[in-house]
Specification:
Blueprint (H helix, E strand, L loop, with lengths): L43 E5 L3 H15 L7 E5 L10 H6 L7 E4 L6 E4 L1 H12 L7 H31 L5 H24 L10 H14 L7 H4 L6 H11 L2 H8 L26
Parallel strand pairs: 1-2
Antiparallel strand pairs: 1-3, 3-4
Bound molecules: glutathione (GSH).
The site of glutathione (GSH) has 12 residues, from helix 3.
């Protein structure tokens, strides 16, 4: 690998890039193999992994259940993206974009697929009339921050996180570029949270649930190894306050345990019943 590169007239896929996810990256879409998805007993079937995009949805589902919405009972099936499960035919039928999370709502006469984490949060919030203000300024703010998250996270994850933690070598140019952008985004959040308890008016909403697994986890030093130190996240005092407040919610703790690939005794590969958490070894 050299530092400079002259692009050919037409790009071709002639070798793996060598990064952490090189084995699953392809320039074409669609299924690579036939594999039906399992279906459990609950109305909502989630196919996901416990990454920041995945836990947004399990946090919302745990919040809905804790708030008494029994129709939010769900089976959470593990899709191991490192093993290419997202390219199985069943998963591609639920999300043609082959990314977790993906949801099948089987509560009605015709099963409804929903993909894209932001769309899933909005769909569930509207279905249960919860965690999304129904009108006016509070709704506009909530959706603005929800869409901000979906648009911003690729700079943090696909940009900063990739080049800081996953690329085969450390290159100064992309790390500088995306560290700058990530710090700018943290500053956007910090200035907003200096004036507001939560991201949108009306209290805790799906905007907080979407943003916390990325920027909250980063602020608490839980993303990309030493990235918290590298980005001096302690300086974002208001993000710190908000991140700790949300991390302390039992629902958030539960949501974060679901669809984990870790063997840790406090994590769940799959979740099919509220009692699954009872069997865990939690301090
Ligand atoms: N915009 C999508 C992004 C989802 C996404 O990037 N998911 C990652 C895991 S966090 C994934 O499934 N990656 C597998 C792959 O790229 O093949 C969303 O918000 O749902």
């Amino acid at each position: 690998m050299t530092d400079t590169y002259t692009p050919p007239a037409v790009w071709t896929w002639d070798k793996e890039s060598g990064g952490k996810f090189a084995n699953i990256n392809r320039p074409v879409s669609g299924a690579t193999h036939d594999k039906a998805l399992p279906v459990g007993k609950h109305p909502l079937q989630l196919y996901s992994q416990g990454t920041p995009n995945g836990v947004k949805v399990t946090i919302l589902l745990e919040e809905l259940l804790a708030a008494g919405h029994e129709g939010a009972e769900y089976d959470a099936w593990l899709i191991e993206i490192g093993k290419g499960d997202q390219f199985g035919s069943g998963f591609v039928a639920v999300n043609p974009n082959s990314k977790i999370p993906a949801l099948m709502d089987r509560s009605g006469p015709t099963p409804q697929r929903v993909f894209e984490s932001g769309a899933i949060l909005m769909y569930l919030a509207e279905k249960f009339s919860a965690f999304l203000p129904t009108s006016g300024a509070a709704r506009a703010e909530c959706l603005s921050w929800l869409f901000w998250q979906v648009g911003s996270a690729p700079y943090l994850g696909g940009g900063f996180g990739h080049f800081y933690a996953y690329a085969p070598e450390k290159w100064e140019y992309p790390i500088n570029r995306f560290a700058m952008e990530t710090k700018r985004q943290l500053d956007v959040l910090d200035k907003h949270l200096a004036q507001h308890d939560h991201m949108a008016g009306g209290g805790y909403t799906i905007a907080d649930m979407a943003i916390w697994p990325w920027y909250g986890a980063l602020a608490l030093g839980k993303l990309y190894g030493d990235a918290g130190t590298f980005l001096a996240v302690h300086e974002y005092k208001h993000v710190q306050r908000w991140a700790r407040q949300i991390a302390a919610r039992p629902t958030v703790k539960r949501g974060r345990r679901v669809n984990s690939t870790s063997d840790a005794p406090d994590m769940l590969r799959e979740r099919h019943d509220a009692s699954d958490f009872d069997a865990l070894n939690i301090d």
